[in-house]
Specification:
Blueprint (H helix, E strand, L loop, with lengths): L1 H8 L9 H16 L5 H9 L3 H29 L1 H18 L6 H29 L3 H32 L4 H19 L16 H5 L4 H8 L1 H17 L1 H12 L6 H27 L4 H25 L3 H33 L5 H29 L3 H20 L5 H4 L21
Length: 441
């Protein structure tokens, strides 16, 4: 992780205040996440002693409750600032994981799981809002790319760490892993506490429509009236279905349609993780320095997704030998990952910059629901389509990605200019205009 931080610092671009602490905190917390997410059911089964069925049911119910909490998190961000809410969520997650080994009864586990799920589900909203408070312009795109790369690297490191711990000490080490997670979240919170933020708070609600919307339920009515932003959210929902493909559809497709060995799933995940962590910042930097509009670079990422999905259709039609299948699958995963690396920073910065500052939390809570809904819908949708034909879900995903790219291009002229452009567009000089007189306030 230290090597990654040095590479990010060597990009030659101006850093924002507290950037190193923010990224280090994200990296450390991602290690904690990687220590339990790949083993979540088994993890909580061993930590609490409850059956896998009970653990799974509680996690499903509390996860859905966490989705319902996201709009409240957006309101809290607008009222108290992203940094304060971020610190509260880190604190809740630290306390929650510290208590998991003590939650042996169903009621205790459900209570701790509910509170922790509320913090987990809302964290992406708050983190995106925090990036908006910390950075402006192209720095937002760079932080988006660095954040995603660190999250992938941290989660991979966490998964490797807990695998080694379990190999040495067995499943009893899950308890120590839970406390290690608590420590990781606490350290991340301490680091984020050092970050300096810049918030724009309207002086008088009556003088600023966004400020007026920041108080009370009118904030979400403002979001619902912003048709371009809702279009952006809908386009992201179509792309977000593709983000779920690698973890949900890919393993099923390999085993049922291609009848390929399950080990290929691990190889695909490894390629994706290594590329995201290793070249994510580099790819995003190339895109950023090209001067591409965020809408167009996000659309390019969606088109790369579509190309990967079409590749799966071709592969599922030809069904070559095992060696050719392996080579083709890895090539498709590379194209898919490039789409992820191009789309994610631009799409994230686009959503942050398109949201009015006074109600950014509510806007981003709405936007992040597109990811959550896509993730919730993906398992049932993919399995239903796969039961008809193994190529059908990839065809649906390809059409969805193409629709997302087209929607992003059509939305370009309706979104704020400073959201579309990472840097202000260069305007050809016009006829000289006399400066307006300056009056004393």
């Amino acid at each position: 992780m230290a090597v990654f931080m040095r590479k990010a610092a060597a990009s030659g671009e101006a850093k924002v205040a507290g950037e190193r602490s923010l990224l280090l905190g994200i990296g450390i917390s991602s290690v904690g996440i990687g220590m339990y997410v790949p083993f979540s059911l088994v993890f909580f089964h061993h930590v609490t002693g409850l059956s896998l069925t009970v653990v799974g049911l509680v996690m499903t119910v509390t996860g859905l409750a966490g989705l319902a909490f996201m709009p409240l998190a957006g309101t809290a961000v607008d009222r108290f600032g992203a940094k304060r809410v971020n610190l509260v969520l880190y604190g809740i997650r630290a306390v929650g994981f510290a208590l998991y080994p003590l939650a042996g009864s169903l009621a205790a586990f459900a209570a701790v799981s509910l509170v922790t799920a509320l913090a987990d589900r809302s964290f992406s909203v708050v983190q995106q809002s925090l990036i908006g408070e910390v950075a402006r312009g192209a720095a937002r795109d760079r932080l988006q790319a660095s954040t995603r790369a660190l999250q992938n690297a941290g989660m991979g490191a966490g998964a490797l760490l807990v695998s080694g711990v379990l190999a040495l000490w067995g499943t009893g080490a899950f308890t120590w892993t839970a406390w290690g997670n608590a420590l990781a979240f606490a350290l991340a919170g301490l680091l984020v506490g050092r970050v300096r933020t810049v918030r724009v708070v309207p002086a008088a609600p009556s003088a600023d429509p966004a400020g007026a919307a920041a108080a009370g339920p009118a904030g979400y009515r403002t979001v619902l009236r912003d048709r371009p932003f809702l279009g952006l959210t809908a386009a992201n929902f179509l792309t977000a279905l593709g983000y779920s493909a690698l973890s949900v559809l890919f393993p099923l497709y390999l085993s049922t349609w291609l009848t390929a060995p399950d080990s290929l799933t691990g190889a695909a995940f490894t390629v994706n993780t290594v590329l995201c962590a290793g070249i994510g910042v580099l790819i995003a930097g190339r895109v950023r320095r090209s001067g591409a509009r965020r809408t167009r670079s996000a659309a390019l990422g969606a088109l790369l997704f579509a190309a990967a999905f079409v590749g799966q259709i071709v592969l599922g039609t030809l069904r070559p030998g095992q060696t050719a299948t392996l080579i083709a699958l890895l090539a498709i995963v590379v194209v898919y990952t490039l789409g992820e690396l191009v789309h994610s920073p631009s799409g994230g910065a686009l959503s942050v910059s398109a949201a009015p500052e006074a109600v950014r939390g509510r806007y981003l809570a709405t936007y992040q629901l597109s990811y959550s809904l896509a993730g919730a819908l993906a398992p049932s949708l993919f399995t239903a389509l796969l039961a008809v034909d193994g190529r059908l879900p990839w065809a649906v995903l390809a059409v969805a990605a193409l629709g997302a790219a087209l929607a992003l291009l059509r939305l370009e002229r309706h979104l704020p200019a400073d959201a579309v452009h990472a840097e202000p567009p260069v305007v050809a000089p016009a006829a000289a205009v006399a400066p307006a007189p300056v009056t004393a306030a």
